[in-house]
Amino acid sequence: MLVFGTQMHIVTFIFVSIEIVIFFYLIIYKLARPDDKATFLNIILIFLLITYNITGGLLPDPTLPGSFFIQNAIAYATGFITPCYFPYYVYKAFGLEKMKFHAYKGVYLFLIIPYIIFVVVFAVSNNLTTAQEVLVLPALYALWVVYTLIKAIKYKYGSVLSSKDAKEEVAVLFLSITPWIGLPVITYFNLGQVVEASITNTGFLLLLSLQLSRHIKQMRIEHQRLIVSEQQLLNWNTNLQNEVDKRTR
Predict the structure, then answer these.
(1) What is the pLDDT of residue 13?
(2) Is the pLDDT of residue 100 over 80?
(3) Alpha carbons 79 and 116: distance in angstroms, whole number
(4) What is the pLDDT of residue 232?
(5) Which parts of the chain are beta strand (E)?
(6) Average pLDDT over residues 90-103
(7) What is the mean pLDDT of residues 24-35?
(8) Which residue in 94, 52, 39, 21 sits closest to 180, CA to CA?
(9) Bond prior to 114 in cis (omega within 30° of 0)
(10) What is the reported pTM?
(11) Which residues, in sequence order, are CB contacts of 212 under 8 Å at separation 6+?
(12) Residues 170, 105, 103, 59: what is their CA dihedral angle, to the nearest 10 degrees?
């Protein structure tokens, strides 16, 4: 079921609508707390997801401006850029130090360069199916990212993965990256926009939910500490005033 006479399926449109609401909420929250770096990371993640869904849902469409080659190049670009942000996001948002290489170098070597190769092959061969063979490189790279994730989480928790936070982190991080490993398979077998949008968006929204839940818990702890500090300060002021009155008398 397509919406508004475009190539976008209703499922993709629902994801876009949900993510736009989240995006504007995060913008408002960021304006209220401009020093909150975690919120900025989440804003970028949601923006990339929205862009990915819109381009992937609308393109290619012969009724829109641009050739078949340009439209596909744009659609695939967002499909490469969004996974590029994943290592940096988990490196910063979850403090996974072992992901530093992938955050700053790996994605350029194994995602950006393969995308350039994809575009070149597509332009030379004028055959999308032939160009899609390049997608095996990002799929293999994603397996390496999964392996690094295991090491990063073990390093963070001291090789002990029995705690609730560790298990939760492992589960959500793998659920968020697994769809992107399978994305070339979805594209190769042409499983459709609904399958692609459902699994990729669900994975990253789970990742966002985990980060937000931890962020909220941290904010509650900080708020409770602030209340305790204010109460202690009030008591100190009261005691000091009593002592001053006593000595004055």
Answers:
(1) 93
(2) yes
(3) 13
(4) 81
(5) none
(6) 89
(7) 88
(8) 52
(9) no
(10) 0.83
(11) 42
(12) -100
Beta carbons of 103 and 88 less than 8 angstroms apart: yes
The residue behind tokens 């459902």 is 198
Residue 120: pLDDT band (50, 70, 90) is very high
CA distances, 178 to each of 18, 108, 168 (Å): 22, 20, 15
CA-closest candidate to residue 175, choices 208, 141, 214, 216: 208
Cα angle for residues 169, 175, 180 (degrees, 5° grid)? 130
- Helices (H), strands (E): how many in the chain? 11, 0
Residue 185, pLDDT score: 64
The one-letter amino acid code at 208 reads L
| Dist CA 52 CA 74 (whole Å) | 10
The rounded radius of gyration (Å) of the Cα atoms in the chain is 24
What is the pLDDT at residue 180?
66
CB 128 within 8 A of CB 72: yes
**Which is nearest to 52 in space by CA: 33, 80, 17?**
80
- Which positions ≥6 away from 187 have C-beta within 8 Å? 132, 135, 196
DSSP 75-102: HHHHHHHHHHHHHHHHHHHS--GGGHHI
Angle at 74 between CA 70 and CA 77, to 5 degrees: 135
What tokens were used for 53?
Answer: 């869904």
